[in-house]
């Protein structure tokens, strides 16, 4: 079943994230756990790609604006077979192809060097325009954070995408209600988010970003006549109750003796999900 394949992949990816975090002793684990269902839906259900040829011209492009979520994307790339799962152990270490912040020149399948937030959608618009000029059927999917909605460049890109009626462009926004400087609502109030995207001319859907059925239904509902955005409300640390309940911080500290507890809680929680 389609949704179960995605849920199973997200579960394995969450384990990969915890393993990478433990190997390096750190990482943006909370964000990666929260976004695992979004990334699994993209890689298992949506993207057209060739695992053995990550630069294949006909591929769909997935652009990770949020370079610090790279730990989550590496788990997805391993799930997709674009990198080997055994390589994940090298995360963040010297000479690794998997640096802590995502860099296109290092990692197969990493399309852009994100991390300077607010640039991903601008690049995505250019790519989508270019692909359309080339007559390509490939799509561009851009993953943004809610913190990036503070950036003027994001909204310039949003208006440009709608002006050019880029039906080959999809944006996914991880609304985890937190950004580097604190809760999003206290940094710059961005709600009503859906109304803002709609005013910019986008096809808008808002879903529970940790509900795989809802995510897949949203992908089924995107427009091909105009750019589409899927606003995804997620929970930081999703799947690991100890982390879901922990006081939220942009960089969530996990002590050395806690990683195994996290893994056990993840495994225990997943058993309860019907196949
Ligand atoms: Mg955020």
From TrEMBL:
Superkingdom in the source lineage: Bacteria
InterPro entries named among the record's database cross-references: THDP-binding, Transketolase_N
MF-aspect GO terms: magnesium ion binding; transketolase activity
The entry's keywords: Thiamine pyrophosphate, Transferase
Cofactor(s) in the UniProt record: thiamine diphosphate
Gene3D superfamilies for this protein: 3.40.50.970
The enzyme's E.C. designation: 2.2.1.1
Domain Transketolase N-terminal: 10-266
PANTHER family registered for this protein in UniProt: TRANSKETOLASE N-TERMINAL SECTION-RELATED
Similarity annotation: Belongs to the transketolase family.
Protein name as catalogued: Transketolase 2
Gene that this sequence comes from: tktB
């Amino acid at each position: 079943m389609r949704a179960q394949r995605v849920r199973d992949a997200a579960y394995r990816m969450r384990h990969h994230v915890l393993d990478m975090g433990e190997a390096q002793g750190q990482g943006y684990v909370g964000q990666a756990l929260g976004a695992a269902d979004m990334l699994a839906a993209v890689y298992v259900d949506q993207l057209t790609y060739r695992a053995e040829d990550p630069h294949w011209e006909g591929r769909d492009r997935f652009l990770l604006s949020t370079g610090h979520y790279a730990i989550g994307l590496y788990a997805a790339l391993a799930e997709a077979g674009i990198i080997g799962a055994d390589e994940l152990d090298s995360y963040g270490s010297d000479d690794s192809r998997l640096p802590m912040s995502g860099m296109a020149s290092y990692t197969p399948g990493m399309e852009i060097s994100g991390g300077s937030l607010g640039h991903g959608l601008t690049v995505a618009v250019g790519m989508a325009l270019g692909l359309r000029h080339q007559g390509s059927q490939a799509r561009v999917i851009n993953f943004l954070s809610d913190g990036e909605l503070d950036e003027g460049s994001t909204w310039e890109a949003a208006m440009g995408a709608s002006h050019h009626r880029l039906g080959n462009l999809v944006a996914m926004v991880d609304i985890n209600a937190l950004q580097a400087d604190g809760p999003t609502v206290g940094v710059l109030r961005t709600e009503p988010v859906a109304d803002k995207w709609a005013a910019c001319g986008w096809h808008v859907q808002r879903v529970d970003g940790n509900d795989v059925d809802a995510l897949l239904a949203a992908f089924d509902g995107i427009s091909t006549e105009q750019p589409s955005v899927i606003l995804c409300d997620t929970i930081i640390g999703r799947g690991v109750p100890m982390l879901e309940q922990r006081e939220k911080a942009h960089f969530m500290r996990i002590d050395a003796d806690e990683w195994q507890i996290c893994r056990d809680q993840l495994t225990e929680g997943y058993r309860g999900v019907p196949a």
